[in-house]
Design goal:
Number of helices: 11
Distance between the termini: 77 Å
CATH class of one domain: Mainly Alpha
Structural class: mainly alpha
CATH topology of one domain: Arc Repressor Mutant, subunit A
Length: 241
């Protein structure tokens, strides 16, 4: 009878767990089966450490978010509608941003996620919810290099049409690509940004053999790319205009 009651209590606790929590519980239980105390050492070294690091990371995020809000202008502060902070739309952004911040370690992406939260608080994107939600999901598809490329191109966005393009070779040079692997990664990043319609290519140059001359291929940002940067509150790259 006592064993049955114990099993039922365990079942009730398990039902209250999320799938991720249940998986972690299974892993931690399995680690205890390793001999010579090795499992306990792994359990403590990994799970206890990761929770401590996550807590420290979130404390830093909260501090930086507070600083971001304190830097808002009086005009921005006056635009904040406290009623919006109680809506399902705001809760959607808050929950999804915090979930990503809990696991993100890249500083550029952490700053972008904080920027999204500040933008949502100030701008209350009721009418453009789908677009802004799509911008949030884009964070999962990009890395710091994508943001750097977009900021570089945005710095020339207001220049005359024939000067607002940046050749791929210049992008690589400015962002410090030194190896073929670096260059290929930036090609891939540019493709991702083009697929999101954040940037477009200019007239395609060809070499003497009739192939596309990729180092000379020019790119510029689009209004959608500029809007994305504004939403994540990332200014154009300084000193590149």
């Amino acid at each position: 009878m006592a064993q049955d009651l114990s099993n039922k209590r365990k079942q009730r606790r398990n039902l209250a767990l999320t799938p991720r929590e249940a998986f972690i519980q299974v892993v931690r239980t399995g680690l205890q089966l390793l001999p010579l105390g090795i499992g306990s050492a792994f359990d403590s070294a990994y799970f206890d450490t990761i929770e401590a690091k996550r807590s420290k990371r979130m404390e830093q995020v909260v501090k930086e978010l507070r600083d971001d809000l304190e830097r808002l202008s009086r005009h921005d502060l006056d635009r904040i509608d406290k009623a919006f902070l109680q809506t399902d739309e705001f809760v959607y952004f808050l929950e999804n941003v915090l979930r990503r911040l809990a696991t993100e370690v890249a500083r550029e992406k952490v700053a972008a996620l904080r920027g999204i939260l500040v933008s949502v608080i100030v701008d209350q994107p009721f009418d453009e919810f789908d677009k802004k939600a799509s911008f949030l999901k884009t964070i999962d598809l990009i890395e710091a290099a994508h943001i750097c490329i977009l900021r570089l191109l945005a710095s020339k966005h207001t220049i005359s049409d024939d000067q607002c393009y940046v050749a791929h070779a210049e992008i690589c040079r400015t962002l410090g690509a030194r190896t073929e692997a670096d260059t290929n990664f930036l090609y891939s990043a540019i493709d991702t940004l083009a697929n999101r319609e954040f940037i477009v290519s200019g007239p395609v140059p060809f070499d003497a053999t009739g192939r596309i001359d990729k180092p000379r291929q020019p790119f510029r940002t689009t209004p959608l790319g500029i809007e994305f940067l504004e939403f994540i509150r990332m200014p154009p790259r300084e000193g590149s205009g």
